[in-house]
Amino acid sequence: MGTLFKNGTVINAGDSFPADVLVEGEKVVLIGQKIPNGNHKIVDAKGKYLMPGGIDVHTHLELPFGGTISSDDFNTGHCAAAFGGTTTHIDFVIQPKGGSLHDGLEEWHKKAGHKAMIDYGFHLAITDLRPEVMKEIPSLVADGVTSLKLFMAYKNVFQVDDATLFRAMMTAAEHGMLIMVHAENGDVVADLIDKLLAEGKTDPYYHAVSRPSAVEGEATGRAIALAGVAGCPLYVVHMTCDEAVTQLRLGRQRGLPVMGETCVQYLFLTVDDLKKPNYEGAKFVCSPPIRTEYDQQILWNALRDRTLQVVSTDHCPFWFEGGVKGRIAGKELGKGNFAKIPNGLPVIEDRMKIMWHYGVNGEHFDANRFVELMSTNPAKIFGLYPRKGTIAVGSDADIVVWDPKKRETVSARTHHMNVDYNLFEGRKIKGGVDKVFLRGSQIVDGDQWTGHPGQGQFLKRNAYAAVL
If pLDDT is split at 50, 70 and 90, which confidence band does 325 have? Predict the structure, then answer.
């Protein structure tokens, strides 16, 4: 006996069509018209869409940062992701200073394994590229970790110099791995922070002033140039502004193997949110910072013309009112010094519905492009396709039953993220999750959770993945 999805419309990146979908075990085994009911469990999807589960390739669960730790772990974060239609994510392992890459990988496996509610993979963020660490990189492929992240920002914490970045690119290219960069000029940012604080400019707004768009554009161009020399696939994370997108577009026009993502927050929030009184602006502090309405339009255009390939979240939540009622410390750590505000925002649950409402309903792109940005491109770029990212015979049965008529008001009162505010509080949206299946097992039924801890699996990803 399997699960038979009846009367729905399948939406993949390339096409849409009315069909029944039969799942047996963890896989899709048949797609067709009027498949006999047999003894199968029936899921009536009349008037609804069947889409591949969302894939969020940029998350930070249970991340130590800025004297605290992000407030969603691999239990609450996974549950929230699933309620939002995301069935797979890739989290960032941080190499411990003085430790090996495998030290970090072992730590993250311990965090995830017994808690995991959805499927997951890991990127590995390199912070200390000693010669012995460089020799470790090829062995990560056998561990199923085929992407490395390096920070061009966070001086004296995560930042690497250009020589380190270039050496990593050369090694990655040789072994079919992908390099990811946080592209901001960390040296310039550090000097601007010191200058602003010395002038007594400590409010959250000055976080954005300390990280102007020019330093993101410069670092993006530098990373793209180095990737071109190394012949290494490059993926620029959380792109926010005209200057950075222009550099990416130029690199792609030159035929370089470079790609980029933006995150949901950069399409809807502006620097004015950082000016909100009573320290409310701290809720919106992330790096790179949110920009302007002009930059938002640049990003929407780049999603339409395929300069950008993915919309992710950079989900890294911190309580606004942390340190009370048993909560871990949060945004209050930066009162009186914007540089101490934990950088990160809660987004993992809202990605799909916000992008559907404003992207599809708002006619920025169609439903197929939505699936491409939310699921298919992430799967292809990060070595998971066609196991993930599509509804096809032989693919994992990660299926979201999507109700295009569902209406809700986004609010912290109803979300499942372990944080006390929502970036999109009060927004009324149309379109959202009805049911979610992970490898054939239902984990969300309306507002009910039906999954269990440990259900999520670690995904070993393929090297030499696509450059889109």
Answer: confident
CA angle 57, 62, 67 (to 5 degrees): 120
pLDDT in tens, 6-41: 999 999 999 999 999 999 999 999 999 999 999 999
Structure tokens at 325: 């009622």
pLDDT (0 to 100) of residue 327: 84
For the cut 80, the answer to whether the pLDDT of residue 324 exceeds it is no
Q: Give the chain's domains with CATH numbers.
A: 54-368 (3.20.20.140)
pLDDT in tens, 140-190: 999 999 999 999 999 999 999 999 999 999 999 999 999 999 999 999 999
Q: How many CB atoms lie within 10 A of CB 135?
A: 10
Q: Which helix (H) or strand (E) holds 355?
A: helix 351-355
Q: Which residue is listed with tokens 């009027």?
A: 34
* 447-452 CB contacts, 8 Å cutoff, 24+ apart: 449/79, 449/82, 449/83, 451/79, 451/82, 451/117, 451/118, 452/117
- The full length of the chain comes to 468
- CA–CA distance, 181 with 321 (Å, rounded to integer): 31
pLDDT above 70 as % of the chain: 100
How many angstroms separate the CA atoms of 397 and 414, rounded?
27
3-state secondary structure of 286: coil
Report how far residue 181's alpha carbon sits from residue 183's, in angstroms, rounded to the nearest whole number.
Answer: 6
Residue type, 449: W
Cα separation, 56 vs 347, whole angstroms:
10
CA dihedral 266, 271, 272, 274 (to 10 degrees): 100
Burial class (CB in 10 A: 0-12, 13-18, 19+), 100: middle
Summarize the confidence of residues 319-324 as an average pLDDT.
86
Structure-token match 């590995």, residue found: 124
The two beta strands, 399-409 and 54-59, are unpaired
Taking the C-alpha atoms of residue 308 and residue 386, their distance in angstroms, rounded to an integer, is 21
Q: Which residues contact 276 (CB under 8 A, 6 or more apart)?
A: 283, 284
Q: Tell me the H-state helices in 68-185.
A: 76-83, 101-112, 131-136, 162-174
CA 226 vs CA 220, 250, 382: distances in Å? 10, 14, 21
